[in-house]
Amino acid sequence: MKPMQNHTTFKPLLPLTHTPINAHFSKNSDDFVVREIPLYEPSGEGEHLMILIQKKDLTTQEALSILSEFSGVKIRDFGYAGLKDKQGLTTQFITMPRKFEQNLANFRHEKLKILSTNYHNNKLKIGHLKSNSFFIRLKKVMPSEAKKLEQALLNIDKQGFANYFGYQRFGKYGDNATSGLEILKHGTLNGKRLKNPKLSDFLISAYQSELFNRYLSKRVEISRFSDDFSQKELCEIYKFDTQMAKNLKSQKQFFKLILGEVLGHYPFGKCFLCEDLGAEIERFLRRDITSCGLIVGDRAYASSGVAYDLEREIYAQAFEFSKKMSGSRRFAWSYLSDLAYKYDEKNAHFTMSFVLNKGSYATVVLEQILNKNIFDE
């Protein structure tokens, strides 16, 4: 597959240190399958028709356009919980006004199927999903690489993964974040004011996402260095005080927590400050809580102390524009669930399946498994 982003795009540090694994990944409908897991089941009554669709090599917006043209429902009257990849075979739930149900009676499309319908009281909104289930097939996998794949999967299943934003956020040429910053600075892009506010918001969110990736990459680096360097060396490298370095060195898990950082209940729940490091490390190891990186903007939950200083280092320029952005927190460290895998030596295929929380990217996880940029091939 051709690169989806150019080489000027920030490449975050990957947590595992094994040599890159040789395997061929192609994001097509046979080798990449996504199934949305809903936050709730349809109620069976109400003014909305909840439809489970299966799409092949279509974006969610393209699928909605096809359904809109066939049914007469305006695009704005459709509801959906999340945008699904264009490449691959994906299933997701959408809603539309129930009164148009009969218009779909004879629907047929080579790339889009209606798998089931039901009724519901509410229109689906962004974020109204529990998680996504993924199936990935890798090809041209030799037996020695299969063993490395198995070990990498077990490592990630045990320790978790860095929850970076994926290439989808940054555009074909990797310039969405730069465009977002330009809009924040000047209110224009290439000297022109954007007429589409949604596009403007999307480009600004790409800028926020890149900063999140930079911050998380720094945390991965600190975590790795905490294992590899002495307490004294950590103080020299990062200008940490002795107690901070001691706190880092005392932690046995890969991803190190920091006093004053923002934590969140896992897999969902409220944010709070890390004030009792020992107690929070125990809860982190149980996966009751996790670290939450900053999506810079107004009203984002504030960190303190060294954690705040680290954020200032990465987000300094963005803080000037906080009032122009909606801020929040995002899990920095997350986990797989329901992992399964199988190696077919005869065909040199390695298949894996796992479930990720909403907002996490399977391609990001795959890069950490293979320990390389999967779109640089």
UniProtKB/TrEMBL annotation:
Give this protein's Gene Ontology molecular function annotations: tRNA pseudouridine(13) synthase activity
Residue stretches making up the TRUD domain: 160-334
Record's PROSITE patterns? TRUD (PS50984), UPF0024 (PS01268)
The record, for InterPro entries, names:
PsdUridine_synth_cat_dom_sf, PsdUridine_synth_TruD, PsdUridine_synth_TruD_CS, PsdUridine_synth_TruD_insert, TruD_catalytic, TruD_pseudoU_synthase
Q: Which residues form a coiled coil?
A: none
Assigned EC number = 5.4.99.27
Q: What reaction does this catalyse?
A: uridine(13) in tRNA = pseudouridine(13) in tRNA
Q: Where are the transmembrane segments?
A: none
Which Pfam family, an example, fits this chain?
A: TruD
Q: Which UniProt keywords apply?
A: Isomerase, tRNA processing
Q: Which domain of life is it from?
A: Bacteria
Q: Which residues form the active site?
A: 85
Q: Which HAMAP family match?
A: TruD (MF_01082)
The role this protein plays is: Responsible for synthesis of pseudouridine from uracil-13 in transfer RNAs.
Per the record, the similarity remark reads: Belongs to the pseudouridine synthase TruD family.
Which protein, by its recorded name, is this?
A: tRNA pseudouridine synthase D
Task: State the organism of origin.
Answer: Campylobacter gastrosuis
Question: What gene is this protein translated from?
Answer: truD
